[in-house]
Amino acid sequence: MPTSKPDAYQEFIKGLWRDNPVFAQVLGMCPMLAVTNSAVNALAMGGATFFVLVASSFLVSSLKRWIPKQVRISTYVIIIATFVTVIDYSLQALLPAIHKELGAFIPLIVVNCMILGRQESFASRHSIGLAVIDALGMAVGFLFALLALGSVREILGNGTWLGLDLFGPNFEPWVIMVLPPGGFLTLGLLLLLFSWLAERRQKLAERLAEMEVEGT
Amino acid sequence: MNALLWIFISALLVNNFVLSYFLGLCPFLGVSGRLETAFRLGLATLFVMLITALCSWLLNTYVLIHAPYLRIISFIVVIASTVQFIEMVIKRVSPGLFRALGIFLPLITTNCAILGLAIFATNKGYGLIEGLIYALGAGLGFTLALVLMAGLREETELAPVPRLLRGTALNLIIAGILSMAFMGFAGLFSAA
Amino acid sequence: MSTDSGLGLQSASRQGREPTSLRLILTLSLAGLLSGIIIVSVYEATLPTITAYQARMLREAVFQVLPRVTQSQRLVWRDGTLIAKDAEEKGEAAVFGGYDAGGNLVGYAIPSAGPGFQDTITLLYGYLPGSRKIVGMEVLDSRETPGLGDKIYKDAAFVGEFKDLAVDPEVRAVKRGTGSAANEVDAITGATISSKAVVRIINEGNARWLPRLDAGG
Fold first, then answer.
1. Domain of C96?
2. What is the per-residue pLDDT across A61-104, written as a single tens digit (0 to 9) for each?
């Protein structure tokens, strides 16, 4: 959350790693795990969420003065659902093959707790510029997390990445990775990796601080 | 009759909402710490799912035929308001039932499993009876997954698990193994 | 969510300095109106592309399962005859008549669905009433296991089994290498259940449609 003087760069960068919606907050995974069985699907889902999040944050922060707080959640939901419908029809018209793959999971972006969460905790309290920057950071962080999941699952489960054959015909794919259990296992292991890295970094920072103390 | 049984078994076991479609993960990972709570939350979800099936059938039959583009927005608004209304009714009529299930109801309405149920049932073109059977299967399947998970988690509380692994990472890996076990149900209906 | 709108209305009427309920209702209606306008304009803008795409996919699927066909017509069964009807109606099953360049009926493309290994399999197959043979099969929708069950549409040999298949007395799935009769399909090794499901779905489609097609065609 911003201090007295919010820094736009900080607002953007926090969503990428430190407050990454998936790895740090474990938000919005409900409808997403199902479509991360390939990198392309993950990209498409991440892109759709990107659009909905950024557009909603923009609209919410520009309308925030006129939305009474008693009906704010309902208004946010209407706004989000509108943009989800827009992206649903646009994908169906422009990229029908991908729309067929994602199918029923696009409408479920509406109940992605991460999007409503950003409106409630950030967009409704900050200027348009900051709200959009925050949304961009969170959306890119989300996209990155989905892509990581989708890539791991596609590479191990199908031997391909974005449709490119990586290992040749002798590779025996781990089919389980593209099936539902693979989604749970991959996310569990990625979370483990994330918290391990976060802890290592914290220990490093502590040691640096100690050395500084000793040095002075 | 066979078709209805297939819808039920498919939603309950083979295509379990949580373990195969990843729907309702938030309560699955958040609330499934205790067996008792998990069971009640499951039943409350089942209840909301049955209402959802009814609402979405009414909407599909009478409203969305004329305005298909309102599907997403009307599902979420109508389901949320109906559940809110029923919650108030239960509070008046049966305080006991309200204490058992009531606190979960607002939480459940925003759960992806509910909207997912409405969208899936619509995509599959289910009628009223099929939709209700589907909701029954999905709701019981959700309860089953939640209760199994809660039981396993109560066990892991006491197990010597590495500190880093504790929490969501461990729960997801357990869920993965559970999901693998549920894959055994595939073919249950078509093997005959 | 409207959880809040409900509570909001109550608390607003109780406390005077809060916004009036009229204002709350006005805000929500305005939001609804705005969203309605956006949704309808996007819907109108994308609808032609979407319908054209869906029609093209269906036509291509029909041409895929019926060789030598250049036109198709949606047909429904009503009052003992087949009639042409383009508009879909809920709960009403349809087949697609396939015609050659001269406008002569070649055969029918029959959609059928049923339980597979994982989830419902929806498929379309081409049927020639003259020779009582199936001449093509395409899976439209399925969630079968990748690498095993999905061979029902990825395995060329299996799909090829349906290019010349007798429907009498009924289609049967047999172990690979043991089938020789005209009505037998070699099941996929390792995906016997999915293979049998495809055969069963076709037999169900036959049971429903063949008597009608033979009578009405």
1. 68-216
2. 999 888 888 888 889 999 999 999 999 999 999 999 899 888 78
What the block records as the tokens of B134 is 């589907």
Q: How far is CA C194 from CA B11, C109, C139, in A?
A: 19, 21, 12
* Number of structural domains found in chain C: 2
pLDDT in tens, A13-33: 888 878 888 887 777 777 678
Q: Cβ separation of A78 and B179 shorter than 8 Å?
A: no
Helix (H) or strand (E) holding A160: strand A160-161
**Pairing mode, strands C81-84 and C184-186:** unpaired
Give the whole-angstrom CA distance, residue C25 versus residue B82: 18
User: Confidence class of residue C216 from pLDDT cuts 50, 70 and 90?
Assistant: low
Q: Are residues C29 and C108 in the same domain?
A: no
Question: Are C37 and C119 contained in the same domain?
Answer: no
> Do C100 and C203 belong to one domain?
yes
Of A33, A110, A189, the CB nearest to B72: A110
pLDDT given at position B40: 85
> Residue A77 and residue C15: Cα distance in Å, rounded?
25
Residue type, A27: L
Query: Best residue in A20, A22, A23, A26 to probe B by mutation, most B CBs within 10 Å?
Result: A26
pLDDT computed for residue B17 by the predictor: 92
Is B189 part of the contact surface with chain C (CB cutoff 8 Å)? yes
CA distances from C56 to B53, C60, C63 (A): 33, 6, 10
Contacts of C216 (CB under 8 A, 6+ apart): C77, C80, C81, C82
Chain B residues with CB-CB distance to A112 below 8 A: 112
Distance CA(A139)–CA(A135), nearest Å, equals 6
Contact: A66, C27; criterion CB under 8 Å: yes
| Mean pLDDT computed over every residue of chain A | 87
Q: Residue C111 belongs to what H/E stretch?
A: strand C105-115
- C143: which DSSP letter? -
Whether residue C191 has pLDDT greater than 70: yes
Q: DSSP H helical segments within B23-127, as ranges? A: 25-30, 35-58, 71-93, 95-101, 105-109, 112-123
Same domain, C101 and C139: yes
- Residues of A with Cβ-Cβ distance to C32 under 8 angstroms: 78
Residues C106 and C160 in one domain: yes
Residue C12 has pLDDT above 60, yes or no: no
Confirm whether C132 is domain-assigned. Answer: yes
| C164 located within any domain | yes
State how beta strands C165-166 and C172-174 pair: unpaired
pLDDT digits (tens, 9 = 90+) for B3-21: 899 899 989 998 999 999 8
The answer, yes or no, to whether residue C181 has pLDDT greater than 90, is: no
Q: How many C-beta atoms surround the C-beta of residue B127 within 10 A? A: 13
A71 vs C contacts (CB less than 8 Å) = 4-5, 8, 24, 27-28
- Quick one: C157 and C111 in the same domain? yes
